[in-house]
Amino acid sequence: AAAAQARHLQLLFMKRSGRHCFLDSDHLTNLQELFEIVRTRCGRLIVYLTAETLRRPWCAGEITIAWKVHKRVIAVRHPSMIMPQRRDIEASELNMYLSSAEFKLIEYGITNDLIAIAYRWLLDE
To answer: pTM of the prediction?
Structure first.
């Protein structure tokens, strides 16, 4: 349901703004390309915070890159979003919090320390 809602928000944004809106789920086959799009081609990042958003490694990467390059970020909270405990998003706990160990974000220069800072930045806004 959240994926359909994200698609609806994308189409609504494009209709109302007349601008292109990139949806990350359309580009999950190449994380390097996904992160480069966030780094260089996005004017701002809209983070649709569902129950699983912050547990997805590619979302962690996108948020971290947006923080690193000083992108404007808008967080949209879905009713399913439960704020993580502060300790869950500490660098030492992120490997347990993120839902998939198969993604090695360090390969993209994204460390747990950076993710922890970026998550605090996003959630404290």
So the answer is: 0.89
